[in-house]
What we know:
Helix content: 25-40%
Strand order of the largest sheet: 1-2-3-4-5
CATH class: Alpha Beta
Number of strands: 5
Strand content: 25-35%
Number of helices: 4
Oligomer: single chain
Amino acid sequence: MIELLYASVGNIIGFRISDxxxxxxxxxxxxxxxxxxxxxxxxxxxxxxxxGFEGESLSRxxxxxxxxxxxxxxRRVAVVGDESRAIWMSSLVQSFIGGGDTEIRLxxxxxxxxxxxxxxxxxxxxxxxxxSSGRR
Length: 136
C-alpha cells in the first residue's frame, strides 16, 4: 500500500509504504505522481517512509521502460524506516531511480523531520516539518 504524505509540496514529494507494494500502487499512484512533478518542475526530490512494509509484487510495473522513465528525474531520495527495511528499500531505489547524480540517504524512524529537511534542500519549496507525517 502506498499513501501520499501531507508535507509534499512543489517538487518535493513523500510517500508512506506499508504492507505490500503492488503493481497498482507503483504504476497507478507512485509513477503518475512523479510524472506530474517532472512535467511541472523537471527534477524531483522524494521521501519514502517505510511502516510495516512486508515486501513488493512489482512484476509488471518494473518491466515497463516508459513507465519507469519518470524515475530518472529523481535527484534526492530520503528513505525513513527501521535499518533493515530502509537498506532494502534504498537498494531497490538505487536500481531504478536517477543517474549517477541522485543522492540517497537513510534515516531512522526518529529522524523523520531531519529527513524532510534534507530532502527539501535544493527543492522548489521548503517543507514545513511540523506537518511532515500524515496522509493526504
